Amino acid sequence: MTRTPQPTARLRFTRVENARYAASSSVHDAVQRRSGPGPVLILRVRGQVIVVDEANIDWIDGAANYVRLHAGHERHRVRGTLKDLEGVLPPRFVRSHRSTIINVAAVQEFVRTPFGDLIALLRTGDRLTVGRTYRRNVEAAFAVRL
């Protein structure tokens, strides 16, 4: 018995940087309702289209096949992987842990624990661990040795 191949799921998040693309896409109204200039991330969640300004995203965490975007006090859960989302995001978003991506602009300071671990303190007060594997990526993003 042969199985018919399942169609691949379409990407549930799209980065829009160009106003011309937004005007030609099906999410034109949602992009027009947002406030503020700059690139946006368009999320498709349960039949809804949610537009999030990239500058407002503080950090992103992953759990299995879902990612959760933390933008201020808002949280958006989208089906997808961190690896897929990492490919869509600009370089100012850096992978800091196997389950976390942080916005470089959202980091207020770094704190080293007595055990040598590195903690990123964000402008929202969130504390995120920087994994040893990803520490070089974070150092490169900040152009400083931590």
Structure write-up:
It is a single chain. The chain is of the alpha+beta class. The protein has a single domain (13-142), classed as OB fold (Dihydrolipoamide Acetyltransferase, E2P), CATH 2.40.50.1020. The chain has four helices and eleven strands; from the N terminus they run E-H-H-E-E-E-E-E-H-E-E-E-E-E-H. It has helices at 19-24, 28-33, 82-88, 135-142, and strands at residues 13-16, 40-45, 48-53, 59-63, 66-71, 74-79, 93-97, 100-103, 107-112, 118-122, 127-130. A five-stranded antiparallel beta sheet has the order 6-5-4-8-7. The radius of gyration is 17 Å and the shape is globular.
Concise account of the structure shown:
This protein is of the alpha+beta class. It has helices spanning 19-24, 28-33, 82-88, 135-142, and strands at 13-16, 40-45, 48-53, 59-63, 66-71, 74-79, 93-97, 100-103, 107-112, 118-122, 127-130.
What's the helix-strand series? EHHEEEEEHEEEEEH
Mean pLDDT: 80
Distance between the termini: 57 Å
Annotated CATH homologous superfamily? LytTr DNA-binding domain
- What CATH calls the topology is OB fold (Dihydrolipoamide Acetyltransferase, E2P)
Shape: globular
Major sheet attributes: 5 strands, antiparallel
The CATH architecture is Beta Barrel
Q: Are there runs of 5+ residues with pLDDT below 50, and where?
A: 3-11, 20-24
Helix content: 10-25%
The portion of residues forming beta strands comes to 35-45%
